[in-house]
From TrEMBL:
Gene name linked to the record: acs
Domain AMP-binding enzyme C-terminal span(s) in chain numbering: 558-636
HAMAP family with a match to the protein in the record: Ac_CoA_synth
Posttranslational mods: Acetylated. Deacetylation by the SIR2-homolog deacetylase activates the enzyme.
AMP-dependent synthetase/ligase domain residues: 93-478
Enzyme Commission number: 6.2.1.1
A Pfam family it matches: AMP-binding
Name recorded for this polypeptide: Acetyl-coenzyme A synthetase
Length: 675
């Protein structure tokens, strides 16, 4: 029987935290792991106790797999914990949000101002008939009002569901109906790459497809009303769509006239806080349910410890709020910690490819949290852009979203962090709600490409095909100092954690089948992972994407990392395509850096490079030079579509595909190659 996932890549570089960092770190005692894992429930209760509760819980955890309930009997309000409880002292005047619009307009909002604005919006929602338990759908650009509206929903106990502002009318329509949302909040438009995305117009199309649950549409002015912009950019009217006096309500008519007092609704710990759809990398997106007490507890804890957050930090998580990363690390986690968060509306190449670095320089960002896809893009553009800016305010860097290839990690560490900033590679999912596998920057020596260890209190393990836990024995040997050979397999979570999803909205069967059927009592992540000699976790990509080549199970991550290791390659995606003899053959789609020229000789060289780096078994049969790779709108590579292309099938669910033209171009290219 082949090994569940073969381990090929051998990355040996290691970066222990510097003495200066350890000195000032929020957490530097490695004993925290044994302490937390000795009694995880008590550990999490300690963190829950750091929140304000209207009524304390009577039972910390009720666990009937797959159903977990945390802090039962407890009552609290998420908005109170993220806003009101910070007021009354010096934090009232602290900046909560520092925002930059794409055209260059900026705003700063203090915690005190945030409270007033959240109350006005909460009162507006009430005037529009929204009450506790009513679902509100948010389809907005990255503007402060998006965070404010989420907090306003939380304040009155109305669960929110944010739909990323790049989604189509059909995706919006589907989500509104899945949730039976009562109110839609949108904007006339938002700025993206120098253009206005006409959100209201797209929302009109969604409503025209039939959204009977929607009673009102609240529309804020972002792009189309003169005076909104500060840089004199013309403000076209088309962005407002068609005004329907029956249901459309202008933000400017409703919100400013509301009183700035609105009580926080005491919510049960297990009351719904939000529903959010997954990225759709592996199939049709799932509506993931998150509740209040456990979620808030864990985002509070992880923000504080993973990012070593300090009172004076300026925290920038570059994710759009439309993804879970934005929920947990733009809004709820940092704000529960009374942090100053940066929000930026547009793309990193507008007006020039140095925009991110300008934002960091201008606002003195100290903690930056972004995605490998962005880092690989910055590498492709070159160091000249970050080198133009003063990045000396940075003290910690994070990544999330995909496995980070060691070369990208090193580039981030050197070119952005100037070797001074720890890099935390954080693994988690929409379903997990918060970061689960990550270095503790003051304790754990990092290795490029490894997410290192489960956060204190989190139980993670690796299973083989036969349902055996291959990690327990391995960890035992690591602890005994034996440095056992790496093992690979399926990543599972062995015990409940506070921020875990409570289900797929309206579909308990799919919830059970997707996460709980394969390994009874354990949560199946759908990701492959390996454990190395030191007991570090390395994420290997989706198990659906694992390639079976001549009896060897090979992960996409390791082959892609070997390709990106070559100086000509900026980005790579590999898949297994059907092959008569080997079962599957490896097809690699690569983006070549502008400093190199694609040629037959280069593709041959790349094949040999992979074979030399990780072994002849992983030598790709095909190397296809591509201009772009198909990605979800959150920037993740959609390998399943590449498989569809390579095997000549009709494409699967493409609703979350960022740019359909990319797949069409690859199809042509692949067919040319075949003929
Ligand atoms: P869908 O579930 O619809 O296929 P998705 O899994 O891409 O979409 P998300 O919840 O946004 O949706 O992404 C979570 C996934 O992202 C993880 O399961 C993992 O595959 C990947 N991921 C996130 N962070 C990391 C990381 N640090 N290292 C490796 N992979 C990561
Ligand atoms: Mg997923």
């Amino acid at each position: 029987m082949p090994e569940t996932i073969q381990v090929l890549l051998d990355e040996t570089r290691s970066f222990p935290p510097s003495a200066e960092f350890v000195e000032q770190a929020n957490l530097s005692d490695p004993g925290i792991y044994d302490h937390a894992n000795g009694d995880p429930v008590a550990f999490w209760e300690g963190w829950a106790g750091a929140l304000d509760w209207v009524e304390r819980w009577h039972t910390a955890l009720e666990w009937n797999p797959p159903n977990a309930k945390w802090f039962l009997g407890g009552k609290l309000n998420a908005c109170h914990n993220c806003v009101d409880r910070h007021l009354g002292g010096p934090r009232s005047a602290k900046r909560a949000i520092v925002w930059e619009g794409e055209p260059g307009d900026t705003r700063e909002i203090t915690y005190h101002e945030l409270r007033d604005e959240v109350c006005r919006v909460a009162n507006s929602l009430k005037e529009l008939g929204v009450g506790k338990g009513d679902r509100v759908c948010l389809y907005m650009p990255m503007v402060p009002e998006l965070a404010i509206t989420m907090l306003a929903c939380a304040r009155i106990g109305a669960p929110h569901s944010v739909v990323f502002g790049g989604f189509s009318a059909e995706s919006l329509w589907e989500r509104i109906n899945d949730l039976q949302a009562k109110l839609l909040v949108t904007a006339d438009g938002g700025w993206r790459r120098g253009h206005i995305v006409p959100l209201k117009h797209i929302a009109d199309q969604a409503l025209a497809m039939g959204c009977p649950s929607i009673e009102k549409v609240l529309v804020m002015n972002r792009a189309g009303v003169p005076g909104t912009l500060t840089n004199g950019v013309p403000t076209p009217d088309y962005a407002t769509g068609v005004w329907n006096e029956q249901i459309d309500v202008r933000w400017s008519d409703l919100v400013p006239r509301q009183p700035k007092e609105c009580p926080c609704e005491p919510m049960d710990s297990e009351d719904l806080l939000f529903v959010l759809y997954t990225s759709g990398s592996t199939g049709k997106p799932k509506g993931i349910v998150h509740t209040t007490g456990g979620y808030l507890t864990q985002v509070l804890a992880t923000t504080k410890w993973v990012f070593d957050l300090k009172e004076q930090d300026v925290f920038w998580c570059t994710a759009d709020i439309g993804w879970v990363t934005g929920h947990s690390y733009v809004v709820y986690g940092p704000m529960a910690n009374a942090s100053t968060v940066v929000m930026y509306e547009g793309t990193p190449d507008t007006p020039d490819k140095d925009r991110f670095w300008r934002v960091i320089e201008r606002h003195k960002v100290s903690v930056l949290y972004t995605a490998p896809t962005a880092i690989r893009t910055f590498m492709k553009w070159g160091a000249e852009y970050p080198d133009r800016c003063d990045l000396s305010s940075l003290r910690l860097l994070g990544t999330v979203g995909e496995p980070i290839n060691p070369e990208a990690w090193i580039w981030y560490h050197e070119t952005i962090g100037k070797r001074q900033c720890p890099v935390v590679d954080t693994w988690w999912q929409t379903e997990t709600g918060a970061i689960l596998i990550t270095p503790m920057p003051g304790i754990v020596a990092t290795k490029p490409g490894s997410a290192t260890r489960p956060f204190p209190g989190i139980g993670a393990a690796i299973m083989d095909d036969g349902g055996h836990d291959v990690s327990a024995d391995h960890i035992g040997r690591v602890r005994a100092g034996l440095r056992p050979a790496p093992v690979g397999g399926f990543l599972v979570l062995t015990r409940p954690w506070p921020a875990m999803t409570r289900g797929i909205y309206g579909d308990p069967q799919r919830f059970f089948d997707t996460y709980w059927a394969r390994f009874p009592g354990r949560y199946f992540t759908g990701d492959g992972a390996k454990l190395d000699e030191d007991g570090y976790f390395w994420l290997l990509g989706r198990v659906d994407d694992v390639m079976l080549v001549a009896g060897h199970n090979i992960s996409t991550m390791e082959v892609e990392s070997a390709l990106v290791d070559h100086p000509a390659v900026a980005e790579a995606a590999v898949i297994g395509r059907a092959h008569e003899i080997k079962g599957q053959a490896i097809a690699a789609f690569v983006i070549i850096r502008s400093s190199h020229v694609a040629s037959e000789a280069l593709t041959e060289e790349l094949k040999s490079h992979v074979a030399a780096k990780i072994g002849p078994i992983a030598r790709p049969d095909d190397v296809i030079v591509a201009a772009e790779l198909p990605k979800t709108r959150s920037g993740k590579i959609m390998r399943r579509l590449l498989r569809d292309v390579a095997e000549g099938r009709a494409l699967g669910d493409t609703t979350t595909l960022a740019d359909p033209a990319v797949v069409a171009a690859l199809k042509d290219k692949y067919e040319d190659k075949e003929s």
